[in-house]
Write a structure and sequence with these properties.
By secondary structure, the protein is mainly alpha-helical. It is built from 13 helices and two strands; from the N terminus they run αααααααββαααααα. Strands 1-2 form a two-stranded antiparallel ribbon. A hairpin with a 4-residue loop joins strand 1 and strand 2.
Length: 268
């Protein structure tokens, strides 16, 4: 990497910090085309692409630079997490989960707990549940019982129920790993709310999450649902207004557009 390329990368970082997304994207793209392969720049570029919704471009960038010299273990963790987010946003959540599960087997990480915990909640959301009764054609092979020489066959519904329990166990583990991590607390709340439909249990974790991070977008969204159910539109609108001021990410349950639309609905 030449001196001028490095200078261009530094300018890209400054533009990114200043919120000049278009200029930062242009500078990063030029630097990469000139041979930029320093992990901290590549990962900063990837974050910008993610936040700009350019998931395919981000995924390609990460695949191309996964073996760059100087890639530390921490860099690689972030690269895999960002790659998984790209897969999720491109519609392949199962692949995203598989990648993060593989990373998690190498040891605990707050970033993995946060990201995989959310993806479990999303994958096993009750709206994705298959029919309770699966036909024989829909049954899929599961684990092989080698000792008894037989194959265990489980329906999609049974496999989904196992996934629900896995989502709960993992997110409980995440909160045990760091019981002050607002994202992990929110994820566990979402599992109770979205996966198991236990709103009372979910609120316990949403309340804890918001106590550590009062402006956390998804937590505010879910807490506003409780306000609306209690008929307190004013309290819900206040929470949504605060959420709308936050910095949205690709792993938020709600988008800025969703929050703004809900605020407009309540005002109407």
């Amino acid at each position: 990497m030449g001196f001028m390329t490095g200078l261009k990368a530094n300018k890209a970082v400054k533009a990114q910090r200043d919120g000049n997304t278009e200029e930062a994207l242009r500078l990063y793209a030029e630097a990469v085309s000139e041979g930029l392969n320093v992990p901290r720049y590549i990962l900063s570029y990837a974050v910008l692409l993610l936040r700009n919704g350019q998931y395919e471009a981000c995924k390609d960038l990460l695949v191309k630079h996964q073996k760059d010299p100087g890639m530390t273990g921490e860099n690689r963790t972030q690269l895999i997490v960002d790659y998984a987010v790209c897969c999720h946003k491109l519609g392949d959540t199962k692949k995203a989960v598989s990648k993060l599960e593989e990373m998690h087997r190498h040891g605990p990480s707050g970033t993995i707990y946060q990201t995989l915990g959310y993806l479990y909640a999303d994958l096993y959301d009750m709206k994705n549940a298959p029919a309770d009764e699966a036909s024989a054609d829909e049954a899929v092979p599961a684990a092989t019982d080698a000792e008894n020489g037989s194959d265990e066959v489980k329906s999609p519904a049974a496999l989904f129920r196992e996934g629900m329990e896995k989502a709960l166990a993992f997110n409980r583990e995440a909160v045990e790993y760091d019981d002050e991590d607002s994202i992990c607390l929110d994820n566990l709340g979402q599992v109770w709310y979205r996966v198991f439909g236990d709103k009372e249990k979910a609120k316990e974790y949403f309340d804890k999450a918001i106590s550590f991070r009062p402006g956390q977008i998804d937590t505010l969204w879910f807490l506003s649902r409780y306000d609306l159910e209690a008929g307190n539109t004013e309290a819900a609108a206040e929470k949504l207004a605060l959420a709308a001021e936050g910095r949205f990410s690709p792993l938020n349950y709600v988008t800025k557009e969703t929050v703004d639309a809900e605020i407009a609905r309540l005002k109407a």
